[in-house]
Amino acid sequence: MTARESFGSVRKTSAGRFQARATVDGKQVGIGSFTSLREAKRALARHQTNPAVTRSLATGRVTLDSFAASWFASPTGDVKRPQTVSEYRRIYGVHLAPTLGRRHLIDLTPGMIQRLVNDLASPTREPRPLARPTIKHVLVVLGFLTHAAFLRGLIPTDPVKQVELPSSAPGGRKMTRLSAPQVTLLADALDTAHPGCSLGLVVRTMTFGGALRVGEMIALDVADLDVDRGTLSVSRAIRKGITSPPKTEAGVRTIHLPADLVAALAAHVAGRSPSSPLFTTTTGTRLDNSNLLRRVRAAADGLGLPPLRVHDLRHTGISLALSIGVPVADVAKWCGHANAAVTLSVYAGAVPGRESVVADAFAAHSSGVVVPLRSVAS
């Protein structure tokens, strides 16, 4: 099946995808493969408004910058959320464009990319070497671009597939998990230092009210709180000023809150408009992640707590829920993980009684007693 437009065509492949080809100077130029006819037609429309990029594709000497501009306008693969595209665009601009942007796609080699990666991890890099997770994100972004170029026949192989993360790259920052008393101390310290901001209530809600992601917490409105039912509805997130759905489909959830947290939130929103932000600054504007981070860090330092990010409150809430015996599947649903396997992969150490389960099973077996391993989801 082929759908023709005045400025190109879309063909459905045997794999069920939709291959778009734009018309430039009387010639058809492939611009990508898409999961739906609508996506392919939208890509064609974008190329119609920017024919210079499509023309450069036809010459076979397109630069990475030109190709990246085209790809970010119509990303392929699993990159769909505006928030993700914005972050990938930032990573490209900071870490890839200065070194590789003017290179032609056909000239990119694994060695060239490996040198870039090694430079990013170098101890002599100013102001500091990038952490291993950050370098991995850089390669992910470049990999999306080179893979798309490969699928369009612009390069014979994907050079990123042959690049390795350097072993010298710093491992990145480990998560900090607080105890329940430490969460209370932190919340009280924030209320004392910043009266009128309800930052202590922010800390309690993020930790005990669904282990919220920072963007989810910032996006909450008063209308999302149902005092009668004792629930909080999470349906969106705000990151770098962009409002979008939560990180995963499971992130859209209704969270049942502890009774004391419901009472505190009810007092907090009394008399306020349902459309106003649930948590605000002293001037009534929606909270900002950077300001919140600065204040949380200052309070944690003042208490002698370990170095803390706001996101560590989410880690704390999940770890505490698991440590008191809440089933993993329930915790995964509560915090918005895609499934229990994700929760276990990160927080297995917080599940009580797991350390000795294998030893206990072998001990029982050697004594002739058959004892099945306990389910990790129980």
Model description:
With 378 residues, this protein is α+β, with helices and mostly antiparallel strands. It folds into 3 domains: 1-59, Double Stranded RNA Binding Domain (2-Layer Sandwich), CATH 3.30.160; 61-172, Orthogonal Bundle (DNA polymerase, domain 1), CATH 1.10.150.130; 180-335, Intergrase catalytic core (hpI Integrase, Chain A, Orthogonal Bundle), CATH 1.10.443. It is 47% helix and 11% strand. The chain has helices at residues 37-49, 51-59, 64-73, 82-100, 110-121, 132-151, 180-193, 199-208, 214-219, 259-269, 289-303, 312-323, 328-335, 340-347, 357-366, and strands spanning 2-5, 8-12, 18-24, 27-34, 225-226, 231-234, 237-239, 242-244, 253-256. The strands form 3 sheets. Strands 1-2-3-4 form a 4-stranded antiparallel beta sheet. Strands 5-6-9 form a 3-stranded antiparallel beta sheet, covered by helices on one side. Strand 7 and strand 8 form a beta hairpin. Mean pLDDT is 82; it is low at 369-378.
Keywords:
378 residues, alpha+beta, Double Stranded RNA Binding Domain, DNA polymerase, domain 1, hpI Integrase, Chain A, 3 domains, 4-stranded antiparallel beta sheet, 3-stranded antiparallel beta sheet, globular, disordered C terminus
